[in-house]
From TrEMBL:
Domain of life: Bacteria
InterPro entries: CinA, MoaB/Mog-like_dom_sf, MoaB/Mog_dom
Gene source species: Pelosinus propionicus DSM 13327
Protein name as annotated: Probable molybdopterin binding domain-containing protein
MoaB/Mog domain sequence ranges: 173-304
Coiled-coil regions, chain positions: none
Amino acid sequence: MKTVHVTNAVGLVLGQDLTKIVPGEFKGVAFHKGHIICQEDIPVMLSMGKDHVYILEMGPRDVHENAAAEQLSRLAAGANIVRQHASEGKVTMIADTFGLLDIHIDKLLQINEMTGVALSTLHTGTLVKKDDIVAAAKIIPLTLPQDTLDHIEKICALEKIISIRPMPAKKAGLVVTGNEVFYGRIKDRFKEVIQKKVLELGSDLSQTIFVPDDANKVSAAIKELTVENDLVFVTGGMSVDPDDITPLAVRQTGADVIVYGTPVLPGAMFLFAYLNGTPILGIPACGMFSKITVLDVILPKVLVGEKITSRIIASLGHGGLCRTCTEGCHYPNCSFCK
């Protein structure tokens, strides 16, 4: 660092914190280390008794922390991400829409292995609302070599690290199975639960068909609902009991069953299939009484158009055990399926 008279310091980088003291009123940092001195700062510094200040000496390829943070965030941010202005070497990134957060984890790791940079995000797959904070880019030293930023630019050239897939409004159909409901022995509780989850995600439960435990009738109802709906739920009849014929009925439609059974609790008996491209979601009984199940993880993915594979389902096993918190459910702010 070098010493410069404040009148000659405009445009230079302050190399120390400057403390301002007003007896009985204020004592604190008026100018932080790393601040780029502007003309308006000069009278304030002089009034603080600071005729001379320490200035950070920067090489021709050094980038100030704020400018470097701006570059890092610009390179990392993809679709539907808004970047705030840099302050003290940090840029906060917020969601510009309601949707599903996507993080390129391998690229994130590459960047965070570099000296002097930190890129922090929420978990990939997190459901975020507009204006939620989703990530932050931080430069740790006061300056960063341009070479580091050039390397980051190469990493992000083909695919950004942070983006959000918007949650579109879709139409859903529901098949409620079970003799006990169809013949009026008990009141259905599934429709209310499914409708609430669908509405919270901005979509609509447009049609509901009640059918008995008859594989042919369940199969016909599924086919009917796929005509005018973007996805179809089938509730009940998912266990291994002899009266539970929903998996058989789904197969009778000619659907491609991706999984019947998941490594997620609650939700082990969940079924997922495609019938001519339309997602079919088989909801076991836990979906009626458990606040959060595998459905809450899979449904947002389905709505944003993600192709569900057996590998995606299998990967949910790491973190797939709900802790059934006794003090109240905190999902999605917890470890479930993260």
